[in-house]
């Protein structure tokens, strides 16, 4: 039990040190999810990861190679992409017209 014993608090330097304020509380993971763009991006990443996992689990590797080499499947896929853009634009236009109570024009665009 060697060593010196301090006589009073002043020799320990306790009174000379000002108490520091507590560190600011970080909101942690919840602050990241407050931004809707980040939340949406995380949801898309999760959906992509799930889709890739399902493809790897249920589709053999040689089938994926054949699908990527097939010109017919590629052309159908590309045509479908362009067709979906036009169809969704017309659907949005029809919904906008129906919301603004332009029934006749909305139904013509929807048709």
TrEMBL record:
<dbReference type="Pfam" id="PF05208">
    <property type="entry name" value="ALG3"/>
</dbReference>
<feature type="transmembrane region" description="Helical">
    <location>
        <begin position="76"/>
        <end position="99"/>
    </location>
</feature>
<protein>
    <recommendedName>
        <fullName>dolichyl-P-Man:Man5GlcNAc2-PP-dolichol alpha-1,3-mannosyltransferase</fullName>
        <ecNumber>2.4.1.258</ecNumber>
    </recommendedName>
</protein>
<dbReference type="GO" id="GO:0052925">
    <property type="term" value="F:dol-P-Man:Man(5)GlcNAc(2)-PP-Dol alpha-1,3-mannosyltransferase activity"/>
</dbReference>
<feature type="transmembrane region" description="Helical">
    <location>
        <begin position="38"/>
        <end position="64"/>
    </location>
</feature>
<comment type="pathway">
    <text>Protein modification; protein glycosylation.</text>
</comment>
<keyword id="KW-1133">Transmembrane helix</keyword>
<keyword id="KW-0812">Transmembrane</keyword>
<keyword id="KW-0328">Glycosyltransferase</keyword>
<keyword id="KW-0472">Membrane</keyword>
<keyword id="KW-0256">Endoplasmic reticulum</keyword>
<keyword id="KW-0808">Transferase</keyword>
<dbReference type="GO" id="GO:0005789">
    <property type="term" value="C:endoplasmic reticulum membrane"/>
</dbReference>
<dbReference type="InterPro" id="IPR007873">
    <property type="entry name" value="Glycosyltransferase_ALG3"/>
</dbReference>
<feature type="region of interest" description="Disordered">
    <location>
        <begin position="1"/>
        <end position="29"/>
    </location>
</feature>
């Amino acid at each position: 039990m060697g060593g010196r014993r301090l006589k009073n608090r002043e020799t320990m330097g306790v009174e000379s040190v000002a108490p520091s304020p507590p560190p600011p509380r970080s909101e942690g993971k919840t602050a990241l999810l407050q931004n809707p763009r980040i939340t949406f991006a995380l949801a898309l990443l999760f959906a992509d990861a799930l889709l890739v996992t399902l493809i790897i689990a249920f589709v053999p590797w040689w089938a994926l190679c054949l699908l990527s080499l097939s010109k017919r499947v590629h052309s159908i896929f590309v045509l479908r992409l362009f067709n979906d853009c036009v169809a969704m634009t017309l659907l949005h236009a029809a919904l906008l017209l129906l919301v603004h109570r332009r029934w006749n024009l909305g139904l013509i665009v929807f048709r």
